[in-house]
Amino acid sequence: MAMRSLISERVSCRSSVLGARWMSSWWRNVEPAPKDPILGVTEAFLADPSPDKVNVGVGAYRDDNGKPVVLECVREAERRIAGTANMEYLPMGGSVKMVEETLKLAYGDNSEFIKDKRIAAVQSLSGTGACRLFADFQKRFHPDSQIYIPVPTWSNHHNIWRDAHVTQRTFHYYHPGTKGLDFAALMDDIKNAPNGSFFLLHACAHNPTGVDPSEEQWKEISYQIKAKGHFPFFDMAYQGFASGDPERDAKAIRIFLKDGHLLGLAQSYAKNMGLYGQRVGCLSVLCEDEKQAVAVKSQLQQLARPMYSNPPVHGALIVSTILGDAELKKLWLKEVQGMADRIIGMRTALRENLEELGSPLSWKHITNQIGMFCYSGLTPEQVDRLTNEYHIYMTRNGRISMAGVTTGNVGYLANAVHEVTKST
Amino acid sequence: MASTMLSIASATPSASLSMHEKLKGKVKLGSTTNSTAGFIKTKSFGRVSMVAAVNVSRFEGVTMAPPDPILGVSEAFKADTDEKKLNLGVGAYRTEELQPYVLDVVKKAENLMLERGENKEYLPIEGLAAFNKVTAELLFGADNSVLKEQRVATVQGLSGTGSLRLAAALIERYFPGAKVLISSPTWGNHKNIFNDARVPWSEYRYYDPKTVGLDFEGMIADIKAAPGGSFILLHGCAHNPTGIDPTPEQWEKIADVIQEKNHIPFFDVAYQGFASGSLDNDASSVRLFATRGMELLVAQSYSKNLGLYAERIGAMNVVCSSSDLAARVKSQLKRLARPMYSNPPVHGARIVANVVGNPALFDEWKAEMEMMAGRIKNVRQKLFDSLSAKDKSGKDWSFILRQIGMFSFTGLNKAQSDNMTNKWHVYMTKDGRISLAGLSLAKCEYLADAIIDSYHNVS
Questions:
Q1: Distance, in angstroms, between B100 CA and closest chain A CA?
Q2: Which CATH class is domain B71-101+371-457?
Q3: Among residues A5, A161, B107, B352, which one has the fewest Cβ atoms lying within 10 Å of its Cβ?
Q4: How far away is chain A from the Cα of B458, in angstroms, using its nearest Cα?
Q5: Which residue, among A311, A36, A47, A207, has the nearest Cα to B126 in the 3D structure?
Q6: Residue B187 falls in the annotated catalytic set
Q7: How far is it, in rounded angstroms, from Cα A388 to Cα A375?
Q8: What is the value of ipTM here, to two decimals?
């Protein structure tokens, strides 16, 4: 390395602080990293002094006043936890109770797979951590395999599998013309992938498009994936957030389970329980039998140990307190429904506003799409205009976080979008 | 449900390899292009009713991982039903009643947080700003020029482990081929971290079994012999597992040879405050290196000194020769963290920020820290006294008093350590390390009996 030979030519000395300045640094070849496309938006928003500014960038829920929300069930859980628990290390696989409750949500309360102990599951650092653990696991046990990622997808998916050194391919998903699902191309890609490939699927409320397959389409996708012997890996970051009903939002997973897939699944409580900063989630892998599940879990733990040793306890305690108590769970379900309803209401309002403004374009997709995000169809240039002229912040792919839309700003937002698109 | 397993023509992927083999690329796991699907379809198209059949798993070849040598000990302890059992495995502080201990200042901080009703929004990738500020100040001293000149890239990490892993990933990306030198012995998870990060490592001599002390000559020689530009992993204080720390004079000489060879010092500081009872004293090795103007890496953990084990709170600090470089390094640490966990957990960070950032709570913490370190010193003394009184062989047990921090390296080998567990129900790691934090004054005599028996009667 040129850098290292340069360094070794330096005269060594016992440096004072002054000396450090002329001594070549080890880090000279470190370039500044590009800003994260999603989190960078919030940074820019925070720095903007305009009173009109609107943040529809990052996918964090806001109430109708644009304020972050801590769910009532969460506050109550925290009150109950306070002062009761010690802070001893969790096992490497995390909180057993939290994992149990989390599996019930995804696989079903009475799932035979849970009864038969066929699911290898560990608490993870939210959805990101679950995906990363799985990517590392995939690399370790199938080093020559590749992951098929939908186009588009949450940008961090690419980072995760790249840093895990797993080869990436893409498959068709979003149809820009219809602003819906490109189902035919998707099915072709599944068919054409080499047998036994790994496919990344969004279980519900696809991020960033909000476009989900219908139940019939999921059945066909399941069939074709099975025919090819592919491995389905689901990222479910929005269970409850799509329709308001967690059972309904798990439909795709239940279809695949019924069809006999041995799937993998990343779950997150960031959005549906508002536990963003607590980093709580779960990675599960359905195995043939209990013995295999035990082995797989042990290997997942072995990947976690040199990454963070064991996962953080606080968020896990909140989750298990809520889901383990009938009253609190009921309250949670009500609050999740409330969040989803508000978003659905804002979708309707945004679309109606645009139509009333006489926009020449169709905005049907705003209400067709589901979950936190709307893939508006805006071009990067149009997005830049929204930011520079109207102080509206979103990612440059035109993704609008509907959670950031309120009755107070929907008119302003609609007007701005109309202004930048009316001559299209 | 009835399942039909079809046999597969091709071989299933081979069993889990040792990390060593994987890194050398010796063995190629089986190809995944063969179909591993087994199912029966009743129709070819459209509405398909499928015979419920279970695919053969893609992970058929996954074998059981060995239990973790440290965390596995606690699991074995839990399973033991004998009432005399003693857990001296993991380094988690216990009271004299052998109960876990939540510090008073932590309870106070949590109450403050509960009253304030703070939200749970994502932290930035680099973590809580208030935390990053106080953690660097705690480590370097608030007046340190490295901070005044903004030359330190500080990023909140998942305790010590996560912070080390971030640094390892940075080394792999920007210093491909560079080696990390780790002490022999060292904390068991260090090797796993560098292995999984694909950073090559080798060992420098550290522990001298003959003196049960530091093999200083060997350490210096091995650091000198390493290729220039290696990373030297040093324990800032309270070396884990041996409890043997260099003296201030020895630290100077270590700094000399590191500078001479243009190595990079890489500190793991997991016990600041726990070694001597003084937070400042325990940071003196790190400060010595910083004062010399050296660039260095420092991982911190609040697991032990604030008892925040399960909150996973720590930090990675990189001291650079300019503020511009520090900014760039920080941005790249963030880029490594994003695909690992996106942003770190907030709860522990807020606790630390509240305790360290509040003068009254900070003073209280210092007192609690002294109390915890004091209890361990008392236990060391009692254990030494018990051993000296009971052991008639004349063996010198005074190394127990010279060692520092949570652990004692007893000098017991694996067979002797096994005897401790199997015969005496004393749980410890196989390298002979006992955690004094898990020992009470009341149990010192029992432990002394166990150690004497294992040392003399088992080989």
A1: 7
A2: alpha beta
A3: A5
A4: 32
A5: A36
A6: yes
A7: 20
A8: 0.88
